[in-house]
């Protein structure tokens, strides 16, 4: 049986998670959700028993939804801090971070350029100079505050935050403080049902992935299959109970519960 290398989502893969643009089959989409640049093939086999996993992974690679961290014939990517040839696991983690860093940096810079314009140039420069993911985590709140100054950016901010969380789950913690609303500015106009469904579904999946992980894979699959807000409401208690399995999830449950309730109410 072929072993698929550790992979990360491409922008196309992130778009599919957010918008279901390419309408992947349910099982293939579930595999895509669980590919995060950390889970190896053995972890995926434990989550998806049977003989369909290699074909699903191969389809995702061939169609550009995921990409291996390294080509099989290439040596691991080394960073400035790894001088020993045998530093395999450290180099692999650095490769993961470099791919995520590039995607997150490009996303944050391009959204600021599109929605805020030249007034965000100093922040864009800091983002483009970020050399590590933790550097971007520090800039996540300033990025959000700048985006909130634009009425259109504020309206789409929740979806943009979800996209950052898909690129790197640590943005969930980095963006933990309440979302800002500029003084005197009205709250964003009510979303239509399709937008609300997409945001609520993404919120549940992202928080379960970030705080619970593999243990929530069955519930995540149910959430992904929901086609209405009503169906998500029926999973609200299950989501709450799953989040309570994690110490950090319990710690932030009140805040996250309120955000989800606002989306599904």
Structure class: mainly alpha
- Given the C-alpha coordinates, what overall shape results? globular
Residue runs with pLDDT of under 50 for 5 or more positions: 71-93, 178-190
Beta-strand fraction estimate? under 5%
Helix percent band: 55-70%
Radius of gyration: 19 Å
Largest sheet: 2 strands, antiparallel
| Helix/strand order, N-terminal first | EHHHHEHHHHHHHHHHHH
Q: How confident overall, as mean pLDDT?
A: 78
How many angstroms does the end-to-end distance come to? 47 Å
The helix tally amounts to: 16
| Number of separate strands | 2
Characterise the protein shown here.
- The chain is mainly alpha-helical and 265 residues long.
- 63% of the residues lie in helices and 2% in strands.
- The chain is built from 16 helices and 2 strands.
- It has helices at 11-19, 26-34, 41-47, 53-62, 88-115, 121-129, 133-148, 151-155, 157-167, 170-174, 193-211, 217-225, 229-234, 236-243, 247-251, 253-264, and strands spanning 7-9, 66-68.
- Strands 1-2 form a two-stranded antiparallel ribbon.
- The longest helix has 28 residues, at 88-115.
- The relative contact order is 0.10.
- Mean pLDDT is 78; it is low at 71-93 and 178-190.
